[in-house]
Amino acid sequence: MSGPVDDLVLDADVLMSLVATGRVGKILSACMYRGVVCKRVEREALWIETDTPGDRIAVDFVSLEASGDIARIAVAGVEVASFLEFAREVDDGEAEAIAIASHRRLTFATDDRRATRVAVRLGIYVVDTPLLVTRWAAVTADSFAAVDAIERI
Q1: pTM for the full predicted model
Q2: Closest Cα partner for 29 from 80, 69, 76, 65?
Q3: Is residue 152 within 8 Å of 50, Cβ to Cβ?
Q4: HSE-up of 96 (CA within 13 Å, CB side)?
Q5: What is the per-residue burial (b if ≥16 Cβ within 10 Å, else e) of 112-144?
Q6: Is the distance from CB of 54 to CB of 86 less than 8 angstroms?
Q7: Residue of 27, 42, 33, 28 lying closest to 4 (CA atoms)
Q8: Where do the H-state alpha helices sit in the chain?
Q9: How far apart are CA 97 and CA 102, in angstroms?
Q10: What pLDDT score does 45 carry?
Q11: Exposure of 125 in the CB half-sphere (CA atoms within 13 A)
């Protein structure tokens, strides 16, 4: 798909699930998003498990950023105070992502129920991994790729 894209603030769970599919850019662009990742989420999403028990691979943020699939961002100004407030209710990565989404009026991607409740209470539009993958699968012409992506999560 082409056209304008919106920034989507990713939490660690969604980011790792998308990375596991091997199709981060395809899924996000099909949904008209560019992923944005804050520092605390980046610190939480260091590894993804492979099919081999006990084996894992590092999340390659440099390649994800170089390809344009994600952008790295940091909390600034009033977002810091909001982060501290939200960190009382959710984990640090989700709290930082919610603070950014709230102040910058961005969509937030999470699979965490507590983070979803906080974000919705603040009026933030929330999407989750199943929604992103379902949207991508609906527009991809390759049903085998869609099945493969879902199995990798």
Answers
A1: 0.89
A2: 69
A3: no
A4: 19
A5: beebbebbeebebebbbbeebbebbbeebeeee
A6: no
A7: 33
A8: 12-21, 24-30, 39-44, 61-66, 78-86, 92-104, 113-121, 129-139, 143-152
A9: 8
A10: 85
A11: 8
Are 129 and 109 contacting, i.e. CB atoms less than 8 angstroms apart?
A: yes
23 vs 107: CA distance, rounded Å = 20
Q: Is the pLDDT of residue 3 over 70?
A: no
Q: Give the pLDDT confidence of 140-153 residue by residue, as tens digits.
A: 876 677 777 777 66
- Amino acid type, 128: D
Quote the tokens at residue 86. Answer: 């939200």
pLDDT digits (tens, 9 = 90+) for 40-57: 999 998 888 777 788 888
Q: What is the CA radius of gyration of the chain?
A: 15
